[in-house]
Amino acid sequence: MSELRKDPVVDRWVIMSEERAVRPSDFSTHAIKTSKTACPFCSGNEHYTPSEVFADRPDQSAANKPGWKLRVVPNKFPALATTPHADVRHHHFFSSHNGYGRHEVIVETPVHGVGPSDLSVSDHECILKAYRHRLLDMQRDPRLAYALLFKNHGALAGATVDHTHSQMIATPIVPFAVEEELRSARDYHADKQECVYCRLLKEETSDGTRLIGENDAFVAIQAFASRFPCETWILPKRHTSHFELHPENEMSLLAGLMKETFQRLHRALDDPPFNTVIHSAPLRDRSHDTCYHWHIEILPKLTQVAGYEWGSGVFINPLLPEQAAQSLRQVTLS
Amino acid sequence: MSELRKDPVVDRWVIMSEERAVRPSDFSTHAIKTSKTACPFCSGNEHYTPSEVFADRPDQSAANKPGWKLRVVPNKFPALATTPHADVRHHHFFSSHNGYGRHEVIVETPVHGVGPSDLSVSDHECILKAYRHRLLDMQRDPRLAYALLFKNHGALAGATVDHTHSQMIATPIVPFAVEEELRSARDYHADKQECVYCRLLKEETSDGTRLIGENDAFVAIQAFASRFPCETWILPKRHTSHFELHPENEMSLLAGLMKETFQRLHRALDDPPFNTVIHSAPLRDRSHDTCYHWHIEILPKLTQVAGYEWGSGVFINPLLPEQAAQSLRQVTLS
After folding, report:
1. What is A117-148 written as a DSSP string?
2. Mutate to test the interface with B, among A9, A160, A201, A231 (most CBs of B within 10 A)
3. What is the DSSP letter of B118?
């Protein structure tokens, strides 16, 4: 069984993941993980994964057989366990939660060896539709408060399987980083009667120095206070709190801008490791509708996060976002 | 000139470090940094560094010459610039600060190739006294609000020079992670009329399952909600808010427990990369004296921080701290 533990001082949770349990002697810093077996995410290897919970099968092929364009399966080594209750346990001083939740893998393509910059706009649209489907499904479980969609690309960004995929972790708690964004957006709205992200969009599109892409419905920028070199945010122009509530007919425009942005990063930085995170309001919670605005963050991992960052929460970035934007705009797209 | 920028939404600062400026094409993910020149921190190579600001020279040798046991120098590639003003600039919407500050390197030994577990108790005492000296010196600059002492050990923990050293970054702002700890400690004290760290010490010493070392003045534990496998905290038994105000005569006991703890980690985890951070109250600020309690965190880097952690602030740890403590207690010390 997994366990969620809260730090006794600050509002920080940790998932103690027994499914992935190790002993100290299992860690070998110098070893590089290599794939020893057949890829569990390739077409034809469906039996290596748990049964699919969603798939895009244009040819109406049978579940857990080849023929799919995209496949969602429970993670074989989930961070959280699908045990029935989500009780908070308070010891005298320490608090923990039993580690109920969902951990799924979105296999983005049956083809091995292609990355997000290689996938077609239609592939990206298919991925975005899968994200929407999984979020709408998580909404139906009243024990879950939040579902986070993310992608780890490259070993240095935490990917343990090469074959391109995203993940979803759904928890009975709203994570701290999300709470903090919601609180800040709510405070800004109370003060200025305006959504902080709508204001950010106005500033960035009129200034233009950090803009790297734009279409009728979405904008891609370099973040003003980028923690990482080439930290990229993609925001919808339409104010919407939840990714899964965004009008479906705009998803093809998002897919187009995603593909373009991944190409820019791939070409300017030579296929960098990166993390992508969907920032969206909590499941079923409509109290943030006027002040929160979902968006996507793409975080390239070209610098080490070290003692200063861990101790302070302040990041050191050697590349000005305005310079990054200039380089990224100059990339020739295909 | 460096610049401190605040995220337009959350209370997160970033140091844009022009002294370390790069272009996107300078990043090469696959390259491993190797030392091409003589080590700037070795005895005899003092001319490679800026002039020392502090040194332990038992033989009364001349500054910037061999003969030292420990040496503190300004960082040759500082994250922050020593420009005169510390003004906050508000653009219409974005806030920044000019990047005034101090960035120093504490060269912990003249000998190349030894690590913190090899250094003697007397070496560790000498390092702790240098920390104290630098913090007391930073207190004299009214433009500085906080000074953070940290250590990166191993390339995977962000060390770019092999020769064992710590660093200090002093800023005109109190970093967010520090503010958050102070706020949480203050809230706990207001609620329970007790220091949360004093309470933690009582719980951990009476329970004992996470305890890995103890002497008359200090305790070493595995953190209850460890973000990282073998995350270790060292706390003074005596309630003190500031590291630099802790009674000097207890530093030899701290040095002894530091050496012992580094040995346990080194032996159980085969010389792991790690970060060490001193958590202490802001410079000159005595308003936290009753509720804050300085301590040291040692964070081994054996797992990748990936998309889920960046998006949620929730960490996934595959090793229970109680199991880690058991293994670390079993290490034979020399």
Report:
1. TTS-HHHHHHHHHHHHHHHHHHHT-TT--EEE
2. A9
3. T
At residue B285, φ and ψ (nearest 5 deg) are -85, 110
Q: Are strands A218-222 and B295-300 parallel, antiparallel or unpaired?
A: unpaired
Q: What is the pTM of this model?
A: 0.94
Q: Are B302 and B315 in contact, with CB atoms under 8 Å apart? A: no
- What CA–CA distance (Å, rounded) separates A108 from A122? 11
Output the tens digit of pLDDT for each of chain A's 334 residues: 689 999 999 999 999 987 666 677 676 544 434 455 689 999 999 999 999 999 999 999 999 999 999 999 999 989 988 776 556 666 678 988 888 899 999 999 999 999 999 999 999 999 999 999 999 999 999 999 999 999 999 999 999 999 999 999 999 999 999 999 999 999 999 999 999 999 999 999 999 999 999 999 999 999 999 999 999 999 999 999 999 999 999 999 999 999 999 999 999 999 999 999 999 999 999 999 999 999 999 999 998 899 999 999 999 999 999 999 999 999 999 8
Residue B165 catalytic? yes
The single residue of B165, B189, B246, B288 carrying the catalytic annotation is B165
Contact A205, A198 (CB under 8 A): no
ipTM of the complex: 0.94
| Catalytic member of A153, A165, A189, A288 | A165
Task: Classify residue B33 as exposed, middle or buried by CB count within 10 Å of its CB (0-12, 13-18, 19+).
Answer: exposed
